[in-house]
Amino acid sequence: MKRLKIEISVPESHAEAVIEALHAAGAGRVGEYARCSSVWKVTGNWQALPGSRPYDGDVGVVQHSEECRIESVCEPDRAAAVQQAVREAHPYEEAVIHFLPLYEP
Q1: What is the distance, to the nearest Å, from the Cα of residue 5 to the centroid of all Cα atoms in its chain?
Q2: How many beta carbons lie within 10 A of that of residue 38, not counting itself?
Q3: 17 half-sphere exposure, CB direction, 13 A CA radius
Q4: Which helix (H) or strand (E) covers residue 8, if one does?
Q5: Under DSSP, is residue 15 helix (H, G, I), strand (E, B) or coil?
Q6: Exposure of 7 by Cβ count < 10 A (0-12 exposed, 13-18 middle, 19+ buried)?
Q7: In Å, how far from its chain's centre is CA 61?
Q8: Whole-prediction pTM value?
Q9: What is the distance between the alpha carbons of residues 95 and 64, in angstroms, rounded to a whole number?
Q10: Cross-strand bridge partners of residue 73
């Protein structure tokens, strides 16, 4: 496995901080280019369960809100640092950060 694709959902208000964090941790390198990422708007859906402290919405209520989906890439040995940096910059109690292996023949 050469690289991992990173997918993160975040409120638009925090998108730039999360992008800065993931790039500072070593993500976003593609050949001779740095800080490569894509961002687009999506609609997030969730229901906070008892015991949670939701950033947006109320416990027990199904929520729908506009978010940004951020995608980038990183080397496998940078994944733990990227995850840590993004969690520190992300406002959600449970940040969703996906690392997906890329097929690169």
Answers
A1: 11
A2: 9
A3: 11
A4: strand 4-10
A5: helix
A6: middle
A7: 23
A8: 0.90
A9: 16
A10: 5
